Structure formats: C-alpha cells, structure tokens
Input
Amino acid sequence: DVQLVESGGGSVQAGGSLRLSCVASGYTLPMNMAWFRRLPGQEREGVAAIAGDGRTNYADSVKGRFTIASDSAQNTLYLQMNNLKPEDTAVYYCAASLGAGACHTNPLREADFNNWGQGTQVTVS
Output
C-alpha cells in the first residue's frame, strides 16, 4: 500500500548541485522520512532525515552541504545536494518509518525504517 519512488539522480561534476525527489503514495505526508545511500562496495548508510514534527538531522559527511525538506501538498520528499564531491557517488534511497524516533537517531539506523524506494544513482566526477 505504501510506495516510494525516487527521481532526480544523474551525473554531475564536483562542486555541482543536484536535487533528489521521492514521491510517496499510499499515505499522506508529513511522515517520518529519510534519505540513505549505498556507496560502491559498502553498506547502506544514513544521509538525512526529517520527522513529522519538522526536526531534521544529518550525517556529518553531508552537514552544511545537503538539505532535506518535504512538501505535504505534493506528497514529496526532497534532498538538495550542494557542493557535491566524488565521495558522494552512490545510490540514494528514500525511506519511511512509522515511528518518529527513527528520524531522531544519529547515525540513522536502516532497521528503523519500514518502507523503501528502489533508489536513484548519483555520480559525481
């Protein structure tokens, strides 16, 4: 019943910007949402999260460069990525949790999230 679909990935040069989107169906935002990413050859890691109350948290590696936001009218989650670096190259995933505590935990825990999108590739060179 809950489906998350990411878009907006692509290839950019170092220092560039990209904006990812995640459209949610089966429920209405606001909800407890997060972005994770899987770097080549590594396990999935948390990037940023936004709880239904609006509180956010970010991984240290992206703090100051990435911004998470949601638009309840469009039922869409966003990740604005600025000053991209080659080490940001990864598949980025949208995730949702029924519990607000999942988004208040840093580092984010993959096991705390119930629904996942299929991912969108971001390549920085």
In short: The radius of gyration is 13 Å. The first strand starts at residue 3 and ends at 7. The chain has no helices and eleven strands.
